[in-house]
Specification:
heterodimer, A: 152 residues, alpha+beta, Glutaredoxin, 2 domains, 4-stranded mixed beta sheet, B: 617 residues, alpha/beta, Rossmann fold, Ubiquitin-like (UB roll), 5 domains, 5-stranded mixed beta sheet, 25 helices, 19 strands, binds flavin mononucleotide, binds FE2/S2 (inorganic) cluster
Chain lengths: 152, 617
Amino acid sequence: MDLTKVDKILTNHKNDKAMLVAILQDVQDEFRYLPKEVLNHISKSLNIPLPEIYDVSTFYKAFSLKPRGKHICSICMGTACHVRGAPVILETAKTHLKIEPGQNTPNMQYTLNTVNCVGACAVGPVIQVDGSLYGNLTSMKTIQLLKKFEKD
Amino acid sequence: MAKRLLSWNDLKTLQKELTKNINPKSRWIAICEGTGCRVYGCLDVSKALEQELQKQGLNNVKIMHTGCHGFCERGTLMVIHPEGIFYSRVKPEDVVEIVEKTIKNNQVIERLVYVDPQTSKKIPYEKDIPFYKFQKRMLLGQNQKISPTSINDYIAIGGYQALAKVLFEMTPEQVISEVKTAGLRGRGGGGFAAARKWESSRKASGEPKYIICNADEGDPGAYMDRSVVEGNPHSVIEGMIIGAYAVGSSDGYIYIRHEYPLALHHITEAIKQAHEYGLLGENILGSKFTFDIKISRGGGAFVAGESSALMQSIEGRVAEPRAKYVHMAEHGLYNKPTVLNNVETWANVPLIINMGSAAYGKIGTENSKGTKIFSLVGKINNTGLVEVPMGVTLKQIIYDIGGGIKQGKKFKAVQTGGPSGGVLPADKLDLAVDFDRLTEAGSMMGSGGMIVMDEDNCMVDVAKYFIGFLQEESCGKCVPCREGLKRMFEILNKITDGKGEESDMQTLDDLSQLLNDGSLCGLGNTAQNPVLSTIKYFRDEYEVHIRDKKCPAKVCKALIRYQINKDKCTGCYLCFKNCPSNAITGQIKQKHEIHQDKCIKCGICYDVCKFDAVTKE
Ligand SMILES: Cc1cc2nc3c(=O)[nH]c(=O)nc-3n(C[C@H](O)[C@H](O)[C@H](O)COP(=O)(O)O)c2cc1C
Ligand code: FES
């Protein structure tokens, strides 16, 4: 694990304890999740007890303590998407990928997540794959979309 | 590097410079590049248009890449000026024709013109379209005139003049008094008077004082703040600087949701530009006033939008709220006097200074002044963002602007106020929308989510949805909220599973009371609204679930089933092939069957069957 990258992030935030959330965000942007070694390293470098770091990293939904798949598929469960059938979309995606939200497919191609609104409510139901949004979904379109990313 | 502006005069000169070559008759095209239109592929349209204009040598036609116009339902949106011709659902394939016919020969392309679903009339000009005509777009209207990543665009339309006026012609007390007279109330949910917070913070002792913009926009189903930050970031920054001057603060924060990467990018860029012009930093516009803004990214927790929790989060901690008797105005961020306002609240401040409190005070109702942006979504024809003066009725918003319910279905309810709000039924449609009327009716203005529901939505399911959301988002610090919400969620699950009992309604009522009385923050305090309002207006529906074990709207999974009508099934194999859970059996040309134990009720068979052979009951 390349901890020099972590040191650079810490320097960018002036080794300031108060920047913990921002530091963890940068770490996650860099490694796509929060590796254990990195959290240990931050704990030592900033002199923050490890449980405190875990407290923060498990409180916020944006953080993942597990490696994540190649494609991250987040299904919007916000109100606007809900009334337009988001629960059915989630059920379809779960059945198709054979995993629950928060899990990765065995081949690490996909991570399935849920999110509470991505701010594209007018075109719900919405799925976000790797940062791009897809709207006006039906169960059929969901399966087609998921198939598209299964190979690359 | 841009030249620093060292005085009000410099700003005025720059504005003159930027506008002197603008000919009101010249052609320019506004393309919406907001989040909604991006889903429809607007960036490809923009690219195609740029290429085509270049190919045709039309270098004098300017393309304005703008933020959200609001009519997200019809993306990609394109408005061709000076006439204001409105094209919607524009695809990259349409671009060649648009350039040839409309840009070069002033012809309107019928195919791309908006058709009013109510009258079937074609409406070529944006200003005549009912969705826009009945709005008052003081904030959102600016989105259509500027590119969010260009500070010059903002200055050209008069941006930062309010700030200059404040710095050079008004005392901080005068600014507060102006905002007070205008009657500005917070747009983030509670509707608290902005000037009162500013005043207490100004008077409080302790340095430095902080100014925060709440761009956490936690209400799921609302995206007004996203569109303002994304489409007009400088308006928020200008508002914050004015607020800082009034309060006597030198340090500001914008707390922005991590789910909004584009908004983050635009506000970061805008802060950088404001710095280069000397509109942020030391000695703003050559005055003695100094103020700077930092960005803090949220971590995806709803409760972090609550004021005291948000400050904990900026300090790098878990976002747990504090008890209410501690006033943020005196003991906020790092225990210093702090003013926290919502995005839309801040964006209103330059407007008030520019138009004057008297003119601003004429808009809206007696105790709710100005306009409010709503995210009009759900089962409505014209989904999108609408900005209306306070006091218009729900009916005007839903029918005149929103164009009524999708697919001619029947209106059932509208949900306002997000997880703290409630549902309002058809007989409340004449209600005037302002802070106080909505609260009286058992809902809330909230931040501006307005989710329209039709006969196919189940009200017990909606209550369950919100309680499910809240119990997951409860930070767990206080017991009534942590445990009470769990129990409520269990009961609602029981009811939607067809296992409800008569006594459940009373228990829900009791728990609601408990949450309201005993919770530490607004999350738990108002959590009863989605439940009590659905019980109040749709008690029948609860009773049918409990007594008859049926879901009249056919939503609750445990209470519905899909079946194949053997008389209609032709054995075409289509449902079999598409079923994601292998719940359908049968051979080609033979009748198919759905096995209920495997069925996940995704409805694909129902959608794909060409012979209406699949029924839902
Ligand atoms: C659980 C909870 C979540 C909240 N989320 C937000 C939010 O996402 N955005 C917001 O502006 N206000 C939110 N608020 C309201 C804030 O606490 C605060 O009142 C508001 O930001 C103040 O700004 P205003 O006076 O300009 O409305 C939330 C409140 C609670 C109790
Ligand atoms: S509710 Fe799904 S994008 Fe807002």
